[in-house]
Each structure stands twice: as C-alpha cells, then as structure tokens.
Amino acid sequence: MGVGMTKYYQAVSELIKKIYENEQESISKAADFLVEAVKQDQIVHCIGPGGHSNMGVEELFWRAGGLAMFNAILDAGTNLIHGAKRSNIVERTPGYAKSVLDAYRVAEGEVIIIINAYGINSMTIDTALEAKKRGLKTIGVSSTSFAQAVPLGHPARHPSGKNLYELVDVFINNHLPYGDAVVEFEGYPQKVAPTSTIANCFTLNLLVATTVEKLLAEGIQPPVWVSANLPGGDEANKALDEKYRPRIPHL
User: Which domains does the chain have, with CATH numbers?
Assistant: First the structure.
C-alpha cells in the first residue's frame, strides 16, 4: 500500500475519533433542537454558505436513512456548479445572506444548521447574525482552527472579524486541521487530500443518529427517508414526500 493512502487513512481515522470523543455533549444539545422541531412539526433549515460546504447540506437532504424535515438551502451563488471562482467571490460578499434567507422563507422559532468548515467568510457570518436577528435557533458545524489562525482583515474574513463558533447557540466542532489537507510528501511543500467534507458529513450524521435515538426514546416516530433505490422505497417515502414537499422547495 502506498504511503499516501496510509497517511490519509491514519489522519482521517484520528479526525473521526476526535470528533466522536469530544463532541458528544454539543451534538446532544443540537439534537434536542431537532427533536423539538419534529414535535412542533417544523422544518429545519440547513445551509452551507460557501463552496464545498454545500456538500454538507446535500448530505442531510433527501438522504437514505436521513431525516425528512431538512430544508436544504442550496443557493446558486455559492454552488460550485455555477463556477468555482464565482462561488468564492459570492461567499466573500457582505450582505448577500439576507436575501438568500428571505428566498427560503426562514422564520422565527425555527432551527437553522450552518455548515461551514472554516467558519469565517462573509456569507457564513451574515447568515448567523441574520438568523439570530430573526429569532431562529442556531447550530453551527465548523472548526476553530482557521478562525483562530486567519488574521483580521484577510479577504476570506467577514469585515467584522467574527467567527461562526462564537455566534451560534450550539457549536459542534468538526476539528478540521488547519489547512484542510493532511498528507505530506518529502520534497513537496503542499499538503494534499483534504478532510473538510468528511469532517462535516461525519459530524452531521452523528447529529442525525442522535436525534433519531432521542425521538425513539420518547416514543415518537422519526421522519426518516428510505432509499428510493430499494424495492418499495418510493411507496415508503410517499407520505413524507406529500407532507414536506409543499414546505421544502428542492423536494
């Protein structure tokens, strides 16, 4: 086996272990928000404000074994399919997030999960500030590594210099290593093989599993999708589809 594969496997294994061992309390608190949302028959908004963080939202949305009440905010401005550099420019644009939240009709008393591995760009910070202003309960999935190392005034930062982990009601640290990539080769200065998507998605699925466990403990049937690719999957999902389609635009 090549040394690159071994290094990446070891780094990802250590990262997953760190998230599991250190974030159980925060994940449990966040799951309480989601349990209450199910009880109140509310949708839960999820947004990945910037580039690859959108994949965390896609991991939650319309997913086999995933919760059905997630309203995926998949803004075209930051989605890579419309241009990677364009996405980078948009995520650094102050004030942009307000119109996105308007378009997806986020409302007071609802829950929003803000997923951004670095937690410092303008759209991320504006999303958190605007959500708080509107009276939403906020969950942040991010890291502290970039937030504590990227200097104030850097173009990647919100003009305020604020960090996502400081602004949300519940912060879940995905323990992303600074620089994101983790594999080093002798004589080559740039690390390769990033970890942010794995860190985000693993953390989010811990949250899903914890939420379902808490719902079952209270005798509540969790609204969980069955894989549409399984025999009977479409039939099993029909009631959830009819329930949430009018409220979730991307369904």
Answer: 3-119+130-244 (3.40.50.10490)
pTM of the predicted model, to two decimals? 0.96
The 3-class SS string of the chain reads CCHHHHHHHHHHHHHHHHHHHHCHHHHHHHHHHHHHHHHCCCCEEEECCCHHHHHHHHHHCCCCCCECCEEEECCCCCCHHHCHHHHHHHHCCCCHHHHHHHHCCCCCCCEEEEECCCCCCHHHHHHHHHHHHCCCEEEEEECCCCCCCCCCCCCCCCCCCCCHHHHCCEEEECCCCCCCCCEEECCEEEEECCCHHHHHHHHHHHHHHHHHHHHHHCCCCCCECCCCCCCCHHHHHHHHHHHHCCCCCCC
At 92-122, the pLDDT tens digits run 999 999 999 999 999 999 999 999 999 999 9
